[in-house]
Specification:
alpha/beta; Rossmann fold
């Protein structure tokens, strides 16, 4: 989302339900975990970065996103957060980003935006410590166009048309659980599990070996 109008519409939209779900699922899948360095790939306006920093008071959180227009909204939001000194954002493509190893990597709704989904799985391999906790949540492609339209109406019925169209395109571009499972097998990440967690989201989670 390099265009300012797209970034603004996304940043102002209410994704609190799905973003809260990711945090809840993380705590359920990794109970008692006290991470030190968390990486959010495709962080967008940094709402999840802020939620993670608020949840894990001893963690440094880094968000990476390729759209500087989106990160302008992220920086504004971080500046208002009490945890702002522990949250950092970087404008970079995940294919190029190279930093010290992380013990947690999360990603929300990035996978379906990538021209090559393997780029996400390669980045997770490259940027993590052994045993790192991984959680990737993404949209799940509905089986019919009628179901796509129903989901858009249900969850974005009152949003601007630019966001509705982006949501519709994203649902159509998303993967099925079986397709994601095959991606994991092809990238030697079969130890990660895939599950359906809502009528529009799938979740990849587990620890790297």
């Amino acid at each position: 989302m390099d265009a300012v109008d797209q970034a603004r519409a996304y940043a102002k939209a209410d994704f609190s339900a799905s973003n809260s779900l990711l945090i809840q699922l993380f705590q359920q899948h990794f109970p008692g975990l006290t991470p030190h360095r968390i990486l959010d790939l495709g962080c967008g306006p940094a709402d999840i970065c802020i939620r993670l920093a608020n949840t894990f008071a001893d963690a440094e959180v880094t968000g990476v996103d390729g759209a500087d227009a989106m990160l302008e909204f992220a920086r504004e939001a971080i500046g208002r957060s009490p945890a702002r000194t522990r949250i950092h954002v970087v404008c970079d493509r995940i294919q190029r980003f190279n930093d010290s190893q992380y013990d947690v990597v999360v990603s929300n709704s990035l996978l379906h935006h990538l021209a090559d989904p393997d780029d996400l799985w390669h980045a997770i391999r490259r940027l993590t410590l052994p045993g790192a906790a991984i959680m990737v949540m993404d949209l799940m492609r509905p089986p019919t166009r009628t179901m796509v339209d129903s989901i858009v109406d249900t969850y974005a019925g009152n949003e601007p048309e630019i966001l509705r169209q982006d949501f519709r395109n994203s649902l159509c571009a998303a993967f099925t659980p079986d397709e994601v499972s095959e991606q994991l097998r092809a990238n030697d990440l079969a130890q990660l599990s895939v599950e359906v967690v809502s009528d529009r989201h799938l979740l990849v989670s587990g620890r790297l070996e």
